[in-house]
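Predict the holo structure. Ligand: NAP.
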Amino acid sequence: MRDLSGAYRCALITGASSGLGLEYARQLAPFAETLILVSRREEVLEEIARELIDLHPQLSVKIFSSDLSEASDRANLIGALAAGNLRPDLLINNAGMGDYGEFRSSDWEKTAEMIRLNVEALTHLSHALLPGLSVEKGAILNVSSLGSILPIPDFAVYAATKAYVTSFSEALRLELKDEGVNVLAVCPGPVRTGFGDRARRSTASKLPVQDAFYVAPEQVVHDSLRALVRGRARIYPGLKVAVAAAGIGLLPICAVRFIMSFRPRRS
Ligand SMILES: NC(=O)c1ccc[n+]([C@@H]2O[C@H](COP(=O)([O-])OP(=O)(O)OC[C@H]3O[C@@H](n4cnc5c(N)ncnc54)[C@H](OP(=O)(O)O)[C@@H]3O)[C@@H](O)[C@H]2O)c1
């Protein structure tokens, strides 16, 4: 990707051990000086760091094993970044989780963890790293979801956390406009990663997603990095997803309610 060259020196990517986060690391590696990879699974991050450095010997890769749903882990991470004089000019808030099924029968611990990870961690890291991002005229890329523009029964809390992410990103972008810090909300539709399996409550349940709707992680990341360097506010990667988002945006709320009353996510 030509126009990414020289755009960002040091990127911090949360949820870099798999799925979209790993793909962000792979696509940024040829262009960045330093990548800071964060997730819980340290051995996986170590292996990814080795892979990236083998391919890009100029690259410095720092890894941090951190459970971002825990405030104390986040505080340790923020402290370690300061102590190591690591000042990202790109923050990719990607780590996230879902939970398919009725709210009533959900496990409260999982629901609370999801809110802490999808909402609190993203907000906390944005707040903590913003002073450095302002100095560097950097950027924040928040991974939201197509679900952020829909109230989704059987995926209610997840969709609500992503509604927060999209709304927060749009508002923060306006606050930071004059400081030269760009904020992008990335709103993918379904992507084949480990996300679906982790969101499922039982291995027997099936994800009610049309195959044709899936977008490859490579495309989601490529399109969103291109949107970032172009200074865009929001992107729905993939043509079908973009068309669906545009259609949803045109519908009156009563039509959205009617469509969602069929509970398309019921499994
Ligand atoms: N896949 C989709 O269909 C889809 C669609 C729209 C939006 N998204 C969003 O895309 C983002 C990335 O998801 P993905 O599809 O790439 O799923 P994924 O393959 O399950 O990746 C999730 C990543 O988050 C990390 N993570 C999970 N819990 C964490 C915690 N408590 N602390 C730190 N890291 C944690 C995981 O690493 P560890 O297990 O090592 O901690 C992993 O690297 C999420 O925000 C998701 O909501 C996904």
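The chain has nine helices and seven strands. Residues 15-21, 39-41, 44, 66-69, 94-97, 117, 143, 145, 188, 190-191, 193-195, 198 surround NAP (CB under 6 Å).
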